[in-house]
Design goal:
By secondary structure, the protein is mostly beta strands. The chain has 2 domains: about 30 residues; about 210 residues, Porin (Beta Barrel), CATH 2.40.160. It has 2 helices and 9 strands. Strands 1-3-4-5-6-7-8-9 form an 8-stranded antiparallel barrel. The longest helix has 29 residues. The N terminus is likely disordered.
């Protein structure tokens, strides 16, 4: 009987301890300061984004690829880049917002690796040649955002939309382009992603990740160039991670 009473007493002490900790936790949550409580009343607000991207080409071979004997394989590869953007957000209601990103400046790198059957030593070619395709993209994405309820100083949102891009370094008109992959100036695409709002006393920090896919063929094909003639279509594929600061 004595052991039974001691066990019950021990259980009551543990239960009381857990209850005290739970009540203390609930009180601390209830007393947590709500930052920027009037921000949801803003009809329009601004932000700035710091971005890192990893991008590649979605490649389609030209029908004449199998009939030539200089290039055996063409492989697109991922490469990293960075960017900056201005954020303009218009609130429609409690759940939905329209967001325009302008200006968006992305420094993007996409590599193509060629496996050559007969390298030309006069041109310092090797069996495996990597062509680095660099782009400076001036973009204008527009998104429709869907927001969850705010939980204290935290919120989740999802978005989808489209984009227009202009390549400031387009070399589609270059004449001496034997070693170049020439790209067109314009591209249209679709984007979708998810983000998280963390509210602080004077700003909102939003880590965000999105998929950005180009819809147009940006390859300016030249049938007379070895590195270009084997390719029919090049479409941009990009994953962008952003840190957005809004106020």
């Amino acid at each position: 009987m004595h052991n039974l009473l001691r066990q019950q007493k021990s259980r009551l002490i543990r239960l009381a301890s857990v209850s005290i900790l739970l009540i203390a936790s609930l009180r601390s949550v209830a007393q947590r300061e709500l930052y920027l409580p009037n921000h949801d009343d803003k009809k329009y607000y601004l932000g700035i984004a710091l971005m890192y991207n990893t991008s590649r080409f979605n490649l389609s071979h030209h029908p004449g690829f199998l009939g030539q004997d200089s290039v055996q394989v063409v492989d697109p590869e991922n490469a990293g880049g960075f960017g900056l953007a201005g954020i303009h957000t218009l609130r429609l209601n409690h759940r939905f917002e329209i967001r325009a990103i302008f200006p968006q400046l992305l420094f993007s790198y996409k590599n193509l690796t060629y496996h050559l059957k007969t390298p030309d030593p006069m041109k310092e070619e090797q069996k495996v040649m990597t062509k680095k395709v660099e782009s400076i993209l001036l973009g204008f994405p527009v998104h429709l955002k869907f927001r969850s309820d705010r939980i204290d100083n935290f919120r989740v949102y999802m978005f989808a939309g489209g984009k227009f891009e202009y390549d400031l370094t387009s070399n589609s008109t270059a004449r001496r382009a034997e070693d170049l992959i020439k790209l067109k100036k314009y591209d249209l695409g679709v984007e979708a992603g998810i983000g998280f709002n963390f509210y602080f006393p004077v700003f909102i920090l939003s880590p965000e990740i999105k998929i950005s896919n180009g819809l147009m063929n940006v390859h300016s094909r030249d049938a007379n160039l070895k590195y270009s003639s084997t390719i029919d279509k090049l479409q941009s594929r990009m994953i962008i991670f952003s840190l957005i600061f809004e106020g």
